[in-house]
Design a protein that fits this description.
Shape: globular
Radius of gyration: 17 Å
Helix content: over 70%
Distance between the termini: 44 Å
Number of domains: 1
């Protein structure tokens, strides 16, 4: 049972990392601008850092899908997300408003705030569970692997759908009220 859960969670996390990385690639200039808005690295480093982050996120997505590398990818993902959460905390402590988190698939502003922090902490918890399960995992048959992967993709799609729905103007107006 735990191998099934590990595969489902790993697939979901890999899907999230891959889709967010591809969204950053699609609108790279916006992602670079987001990094600059954080003001935690010199602006001259924003473009190369964007490239590194996108590459690392794609690498994490691949690593989470390969059982041999899964625990390492999960631990590295936790470290990366911890850096992201730290940067978000700095932005919030400075009181900066309208800083795009750089972690959203939405085309409009997704400001650093409780939603982006909760999303990051949720993914950190998921990766921690993956790391624990991958160290203590067991063999999973081919059919069960496909079922678990399908559940993982479903979970990731639900996550992405919530992201999309939260960007609807009616919902965003209601949250501000």
């Amino acid at each position: 049972m735990q191998a099934w859960v590990e595969t489902a969670l790993s697939t979901a996390a890999a899907f999230v990392f891959a889709t967010v990385a591809l969204a950053k690639t699609r609108d790279r200039s916006r992602f670079v601008q987001s990094i600059e808005q954080y003001r935690v690295v010199p602006s001259v480093l924003a473009r190369p850092l964007a490239t590194v982050i996108i590459g690392v996120e794609l690498g994490l997505a691949l690593g989470l899908l390969v059982p041999t590398y899964r625990s390492f990818a999960a631990a590295f993902g936790i470290a990366l997300l911890t850096l992201f959460v730290t940067a978000m905390g700095i932005v919030l402590l400075r009181g900066d408003k309208d800083v795009d988190c750089g972690c959203s698939l939405r085309r409009d502003l997704s400001p650093v705030g409780p939603t982006s922090l909760a999303r990051s902490f949720g993914l950190i918890l998921m990766l921690a569970l993956i790391a624990i399960l991958s160290v203590h995992g067991s063999a999973l048959g081919n059919i069960a692997s496909v079922d678990a992967a399908a559940c993982g993709v479903t979970a990731a799609l639900i996550y992405l759908e919530i992201e999309t729905i939260s960007s609807f103007p009616v919902i965003r107006r209601h949250r501000r009220a």
